[in-house]
Design brief:
107 residues, 77% helix
Length: 107
């Protein structure tokens, strides 16, 4: 079968937690994740566990860290857009209420 995102994070977490040094395994996992078209199937927790495992094992993989960083930045921007949209809807509703109340529009 195919590995799921959690399988990757669990594997590197287990090695890092046990203190087992296996750079080749970490490199293969990192290259696989970094080579994916998208990290959309990964939950934030799986990504953070993966980064923690690499840091704990003392293994640096810039391509992996860049890919995860870009994913997290994209998620943060999307969350900000949703907040902006909610704020805009709330402001619009308040404006309509104001207009309806005073029949002259918002100030």
């Amino acid at each position: 079968g195919q590995f799921k995102p959690q399988d990757f994070s669990n594997t590197v977490w287990a090695y890092a937690t046990a203190g087992i040094n296996h750079p080749k395994l970490f490199d293969k996992v990192a290259n696989h994740i970094a080579g994916l078209d998208s990290l959309d199937r990964f939950k934030s927790q799986e990504l953070s566990i993966t980064v923690w495992a690499y840091a704990t094992a003392g293994i640096n993989h810039p391509k992996l860290f860049e890919k995860i960083g870009l994913k997290q930045e994209k998620k943060k921007r999307a969350e900000q857009c949703v907040k902006c949209e909610k704020d805009a809807v709330k402001e619009f509703v308040e404006c309509v209420k104001c207009r309806d109340r005073y029949h002259e529009g918002c100030h």
